[in-house]
C-alpha cells in the first residue's frame, strides 16, 4: 500500500471589480479586437484598494474547506503559492492561517510565479506521501494588478487577480494509475531565462515593488514547447497515453498558447478547460481557478484523469497528473 494525496475539495475567489478590454483601450493604445485576437482575453478581475492577496486566498480557502466538509482545525499545513505576497515577510500563508483560525501545524509560501501552484502541489504531495502531513491546504493567490505598469500595453492587458485552493488528504492507494489522487508530480527550472519574464524591483535589488517586464514573443515560444513536453513526461511516468486523459487544466496565460499546445499534442480542444477569456492570466491562481470551474460545472467528475500543467517566470514549468 502507498499513500496518495487526494483532492477532497476545491474553492475559488475572484474580486468583484471587472475591467473590460474597452476600459483598457481608454488608458493605453490598444483595442478590444487586438486583445481578443492575440490573447483570447475579454476581461479580468482586479482587487479593490485595500484588498490583499491574503484576503483573496482566505476566501478561496474557506470555500475549498467547505467543499471538503472540513474546518481549518483539520489542517496540518497550508502552502500558498504567490509572487505577490502582502509583505516581503512574514509569509502571506501565516496571515491566511490566522484568518482561518488555524493555530497549529505549518504555513508557508512558495514562489514559482505562474508555475507556483504546481510547485506547491508537488511539495504538499511529498509531505503527504512521507506521512508527515495528513491534510494540507494548497492555495494559489495573486494580485498581479499591483505589479503592472498600467501605461505598458504589452503587459497590462494580460493579467488579472484571483485565488483558488484545494484541500488534499492522505488516502491509501495500490500504486497504479487507477488510484485516486496525485499520481505523479514533475517540476523544472531553467534560470538562464530569468530576464525574459521578471519584475524589476524587490528588496535585494534596492528598488521598491517594481513592474512586470516581459519579452512576450520568447515566452510564447518556450511556453508551447515546455507545456507540450510536460504532458509526455507525466504520461510516460505513469505508463499512460494521451487518450487516457479526461481533462487538461493548463495555466491560463493566453488562448493562443493553449490552442497551440493542444494542437502540438493532438489533443481535442474540448478536453481543455479554458478560463482565460474571463480571468486573464492570474499566475499561480489560474490552475486552481480553472480546476474549480470544471469541478463546479461537473465537467470534471470523480474518477477522471486530469493533467494540471504550467509554465512561468524563471523559467519554471511543471505538471501534476491527478485522478479526481
Ligand atoms: N494593443 C495593440 N498593439 C499591441 C499591444 C496591445 N495591447 N501590445 C503590443 N502591441 C503591438 C506591439 O507594439 C507590436 O507593434 P510593432 O509591430 O509596431 O512593434 C505589435 O503589436 C506586435 O507585437 P508582438 O509582441 O510581436 O505581438 P505578439 O503577437 O507576440 O503578441 C503577446 C504579444 C504578449 C500577446 C504574446 O507575445 C504573448 O502572449 N506572449 C506570451 C505572454 C505570456 O503569456 N506571459 C506569461 C507567461 S506565464
General description of the model:
The chain is of the alpha/beta class and 324 residues long. It folds into two domains: 2-173, Peroxisomal Thiolase, Chain A, domain 1; 181-323, Peroxisomal Thiolase, Chain A, domain 1 (3-Layer(aba) Sandwich). It is built from nine helices and 13 strands. The chain has helices spanning 21-25, 32-39, 53-68, 92-100, 116-129, 216-237, 255-265, 276-279, 286-296, and strands at 2-13, 18-20, 43-45, 77-81, 106-110, 135-143, 161-173, 181-189, 197-199, 212-214, 247-250, 305-312, 316-323. Strands 1-7-6-4-5 form a five-stranded mixed β-sheet, sandwiched between helices. Helix 3 (53-68) packs across helix 4 (92-100) and helix 6 (216-237) crosses helix 7 (255-265). The longest helix has 22 residues, at 216-237. It is globular and about 60 Å long. It starts with a strand and ends with a strand. The model has no long low-confidence stretch (mean pLDDT 96). Bound molecules: coenzyme A. Coenzyme A binds next to helix 2 and helix 6.
Amino acid at each position: 500500500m502507498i499513500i496518495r494525496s487526494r483532492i477532497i475539495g476545491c474553492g475559488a475567489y475572484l474580486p468583484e471589480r471587472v475591467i473590460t478590454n474597452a476600459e483598457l483601450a481608454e488608458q493605453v493604445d490598444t483595442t478590444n479586437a487586438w486583445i481578443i485576437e492575440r490573447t483570447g482575453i475579454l476581461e479580468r478581475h482586479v482587487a479593490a484598494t485595500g484588498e490583499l492577496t491574503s484576503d483573496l486566498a482566505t476566501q478561496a480557502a474557506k470555500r475549498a474547506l467547505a467543499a471538503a466538509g472540513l474546518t481549518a482545525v483539520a489542517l496540518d499545513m497550508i502552502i500558498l503559492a504567490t509572487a505577490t505576497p502582502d509583505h516581503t515577510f512574514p509569509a502571506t500563508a501565516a496571515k491566511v492561517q490566522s484568518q482561518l483560525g488555524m493555530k497549529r501545524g505549518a504555513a508557508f509560501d512558495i514562489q514559482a510565479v505562474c508555475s507556483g501552484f504546481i510547485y506547491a502541489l508537488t511539495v504538499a504531495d511529498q509531505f503527504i506521501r512521507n506521512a508527515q502531513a495528513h491534510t494540507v491546504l494548497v492555495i494559489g493567490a495573486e494580485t498581479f494588478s499591483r505589479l503592472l505598469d498600467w501605461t505598458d500595453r504589452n503587459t497590462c492587458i494580460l493579467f488579472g487577480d484571483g485565488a483558488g485552493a484545494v484541500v488534499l488528504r492522505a488516502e491509501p492507494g495500490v500504486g497504479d494509475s487507477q488510484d485516486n489522487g496525485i499520481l505523479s508530480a514533475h517540476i523544472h527550472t531553467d534560470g538562464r531565462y530569468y530576464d525574459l519574464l521578471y519584475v524589476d524591483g524587490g528588496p535585494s535589488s534596492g528598488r521598491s515593488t517594481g513592474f512586470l517586464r516581459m519579452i512576450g514573443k520568447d515566452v510564447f515560444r518556450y511556453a508551447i514547447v515546455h507545456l507540450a513536453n510536460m504532458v509526455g513526461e507525466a504520461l510516460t511516468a505513469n505508463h499512460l497515453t494521451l487518450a487516457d486523459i479526461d481533462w487538461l487544466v493548463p495555466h491560463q496565460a493566453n488562448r493562443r498558447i493553449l490552442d497551440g499546445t493542444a494542437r502540438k499534442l493532438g489533443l481535442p480542444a474540448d478536453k481543455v478547460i479554458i478560463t482565460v477569456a474571463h480571468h486573464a492570466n492570474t499566475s499561480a491562481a489560474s490552475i486552481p481557478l480553472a480546476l474549480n470551474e470544471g469541478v463546479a460545472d461537473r465537467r470534471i467528475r470523480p474518477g477522471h484523469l486530469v493533467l494540471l500543467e504550467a509554465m512561468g517566470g524563471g523559467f519554471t514549468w511543471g505538471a501534476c497528473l491527478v485522478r479526481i
